[in-house]
Structure formats: C-alpha cells, structure tokens
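Recap from last week: sequence in, structure out.
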Amino acid sequence: MTTVCVKAWVHGTVQGVGFRYSTQRQAKELGVKGYAKNLDDGSVEVLACGEEKEVQALISWLKQGGPRSASVEKVLEEPHKPQEMPDRFSTG
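Predicted structure tokens:
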C-alpha cells in the first residue's frame, strides 16, 4: 500500500456553506487524513493523504462540486510531501 498526499485549492462559493465539514465527512468515509481550511482569498485549502484511490476519490468529489450548498468554480491540485503525516482529518 502506497500513501500519497495531494494539496488542493478549491475556488468558488466555498466558505460559509459547510464546505469544510462536508469535506471532512467525505474524507472520513474514504479513510483519508489531512485538513480543510479557509484561506483569506475566499478559497479552501484541502490536504488529502491516504491510499491513492481514496485520495483521488476525494479530489473527484471536490471537482464535482462538493456539498450541494457550495458552488465550486475550479480546483487546483498538486502532489505534496508534508513534513509530518496527519493522523486524522481536521477543519483547521
């Protein structure tokens, strides 16, 4: 089993609509660890670490628009190597 990490930036109407908590719920269902946090520019940064298949499933969910209350315009992503692996998924 290979663990991968991806950092994604989700743009659109993604703050104040339960986006981070819905992302956390989805990540937990998939067994993905990391975080979802609001950024000052109105976007949400997501770190997703886990098995490649599950991480890609979470990224696909983000690209499909996340929760119904959100309006995702674009998702940018890149591989990431954190200094420390997360032990859970938080909404920091």
